[in-house]
Amino acid sequence: MDNKYIEQLRTHVKDALRTDNMRYQHTLGVANTSACLAMCHGADMNKAYIAGLLHDCAKCVPDDVKIAECEQFGLPISDIEFESPYLLHSKLGAYYAAHKYNVEDDEICSAIQWHTTGKPAMTLLEKIVFIADYIEPYRNKAANLDGIRHMAFTDIDMAAYVILDDTLSYIRKTGRNIDTQTVDTYEYYKGIIKEREN
């Protein structure tokens, strides 16, 4: 790992998240967890760490600015994203990674883009960052976290499926709008698990 580059990125991310100190702690947790998952599953540890470090780099951007910047940069905004602009931090973060933080690796940017909703047939790196965002050590409110954390290192597809199932259940209970991308991702991994069980 290029320690000098990583330290520079950490400094930039800390500044970007300066209005939310716990968000920065979460970010470090996701970066470290992503690196650990990468080591376990044979993915590139450096890519996983960088994707984890940058996954929320647009999180503290005000919602109106998220919308304005997505429009300015030509990033598509779905109806659900207009209604729930916080979802835009993923695709805006991927844009920042490429254009603000000079990340030239499309796989890293894609992992950032899909870390919130997931997507069907995620790459290993995309799954790693998606899961790390849910299980990193500062997360403590979700049900069955210990079991999911163990699963993440032993059965990554099952971990993705359980996280998606729990996420949809939680969103339904809160009455918030559900992104269809999350539903599509859930259905895909549900199919993977069912097919495996037959």
From TrEMBL:
It holds the Pfam family HD. It comes from the Bacteria. PROSITE patterns: HD (PS51831). This is bis(5'-nucleosyl)-tetraphosphatase (symmetrical). Keywords: Hydrolase, Iron, Metal-binding, Nucleotide-binding. Residues 23-138 form the HD domain. GO terms for molecular function: bis(5'-nucleosyl)-tetraphosphatase (symmetrical) activity; metal ion binding; nucleotide binding. It catalyses: P(1),P(4)-bis(5'-adenosyl) tetraphosphate + H2O = 2 ADP + 2 H(+). Its EC number is 3.6.1.41. InterPro entries: Diverse_Catalytic_Enzymes, HD/PDEase_dom, HD_domain, YqeK.
